[in-house]
Amino acid sequence: MLVARTENNLLQPVGRKLAMPHPIWKRTMFIQTQDTPNPDSLKFLPGVSVLEKGQTMDFPSVSSAQCSPLAKLLFRVEGVRSVFFGSDFVTISKQEDAEWRIIKPEVFAVIMDFFASGLPVVTDAKPNPDTQFNEDDDETVQMIKELLDTRIRPTVQEDGGDIIFMGFDDGIVKLKMQGSC
């Protein structure tokens, strides 16, 4: 029997016999992974925006994830220790005794299902402190913040983490490392 595909991808008979329509499976999201320098952390790249450009959010525990439906779902995956969001990635850190071969498929499924749902990634977003200039910053602090923003943060974010300026006292720069750092 000859069949032809119609506009909506259903099989239709050409001749006398009827054909049953076959479902056509489409991949709605292709998630890539990227290793990080930390073997217990893996960067997931869903191909869609996770947060606004330049924004990051760190969830070191399930209790810190109350403002994010996605983070809460990821913490349900057995073996997930922490979750970190960047503008276009999700970094998962696993418990030492957990295995990626078990965790990865579950994380893929959670991320795919979540983005298909259309829910917001965060509900009551309180962005992390960042390196924006303040009026009361002296010249040294402004140079430190510019260096962090232009040279250091992009490199650290490539590895699935972030670096946040916390202060400068007595010649010591205080930073907070997040994600897979």
UniProtKB/TrEMBL annotation:
One of its GO terms (molecular function) is iron-sulfur cluster binding. One of its GO terms (cellular component) is mitochondrion. InterPro entries: FSCA_dom_sf (IPR034904), Nfu/NifU_N (IPR014824), Nfu/NifU_N_sf (IPR036498), NFU1-like (IPR035433), NIF_FeS_clus_asmbl_NifU_C (IPR001075). Keywords: Iron, Iron-sulfur, Metal-binding, Transit peptide. Signal peptide: none annotated. Coiled coil: none annotated. Residues 31-118 form the Scaffold protein Nfu/NifU N-terminal domain. Transmembrane segments: none annotated. One of its GO terms (biological process) is iron-sulfur cluster assembly. Pfam families: Nfu_N (PF08712), NifU (PF01106). Belongs to the NifU family. Molecular scaffold for [Fe-S] cluster assembly of mitochondrial iron-sulfur proteins. This is NFU1 iron-sulfur cluster scaffold homolog, mitochondrial.
